[in-house]
Design goal:
This protein is α/β, with parallel strands linked by helices and 285 residues long. It is 38% helix and 22% strand. It has a 6-stranded parallel beta sheet with strand order 1-4-3-2-5-6, with helices on both faces. α6 packs across α7 and α9 packs antiparallel against α10. The chain starts with a strand and ends with a strand. The relative contact order is 0.13. The chain binds adenosine monophosphate. The site of adenosine monophosphate has 17 residues, from α2 and β5.
Length: 285
């Protein structure tokens, strides 16, 4: 498969596809692809003649003490995965190509970026919004595919696309999990076999909180939902909980009580060893 490395070539290919009447789906990734990414590529390939997967480890979304240098990079293996899943193009630009010298423009989305991952990782969502916008400009897709795994990120991307009038449909696909429930993630490569086993507690915690919500009649307290998560999470001593919250699925704001019809996001972050894990589930009261 031909790997496109420049924005100019990427835009020329997109332009040609559109002139030919083909629609374009894109899947932005940081590589080290697994079956979660694969499901997005397959969804795009099922709907579009052209499916472009970008592989770019974006420096501006990593904090100074985060794992940018050690983030897994394996382009050859990724290309094989992309081909197998029906992708037609790979866009793998260099840092200099995406951030030409002298760049001073950053996209900042207010509101949903201020809590949870945004509070824990200052500047992270500015990096995400900026790079996603630039990748969309390069790949010119009709539809862009994202995973629910990074739920807060999907809200940030949807907000940015609406606010900037970007002509692209955002589609969010379900989280793909290991057999034990652990959400697939490129960072799971950092986990030992023992830690992978322990990390499944995040999914169990989400399930038990979801049970509390499903069993509720008319209303349920946030405390009861969050307590169910914390009780399960505490069964794994090695896990340091960052947050375990039940919030409004659109705004990420917390209320003391939720009532019938409320759509909630249950969101967990925790650290196991040196690896930060996140997971989430959507439920309606
Ligand atoms: P990343 O390479 O981690 O930046 O992820 C690229 C895209 O794949 C993002 O939209 C993620 O939300 C999505 N993704 C990551 N892990 C999963 C998963 N387990 N299931 C579904 N989508 C995922």
């Amino acid at each position: 498969m031909h790997v496109i490395t420049t924005v100019a070539e990427m835009q020329a290919i997109a332009r040609t596809a559109r002139v030919l009447g083909q629609t374009i789906g894109c899947v932005p990734t940081m590589g080290a692809l697994h079956a979660g990414h694969g499901s997005l590529i397959e969804a795009s390939a099922a709907a579009h003649a052209v499916t472009i997967t970008s592989v770019f480890v974006n420096p501006t979304q990593f904090g100074p003490t985060e794992d940018f240098d050690s983030y897994p990079r394996m382009l050859e293996a990724d290309i094989a995965t992309i081909e197998r899943c029906g992708g037609t193009h790979v866009f793998a630009p260099s840092i200099a190509e995406m951030y030409p010298g002298g760049y001073t423009t950053t996209i900042h989305v207010d509101g949903v970026t201020e809590v949870l991952e945004g509070a824990h990782r200052p500047g992270h969502f500015d990096g995400v919004a900026t790079v996603v916008c630039k990748l969309l400009m390069a790949m010119q897709p009709n539809e862009a595919f994202f995973g629910q795994k990074d739920y807060q990120q999907t809200l940030v991307v949807r907000r940015m696309v609406a606010d900037l009038l970007l002509p692209v449909t955002i589609s969010v696909r379900p989280t793909v999990r290991e057999q034990n429930g652990l959400a697939m993630s490129s960072r799971n490569a950092y986990l030992s076999a023992e830690e992978r086993h322990r990390a499944a507690v995040l999914y169990r915690a989400l399930q038990s909180a979801a049970d509390v919500v499903r069993l509720a009649t008319q209303s349920v307290s946030r405390h009861a939902i969050e307590d169910a998560m914390l009780r399960e999470l505490r069964t794994v001593e090695e896990l340091t909980v960052g947050y375990a919250v039940a919030v409004d699925a659109d705004t990420l704001l917390a209320s003391e009580t939720y009532s019938t019809g409320d759509r909630l996001a249950l969101l967990i972050a925790g650290t196991l060893g040196t690896t930060r894990l996140i997971d989430n589930m959507l439920v309606t009261v």
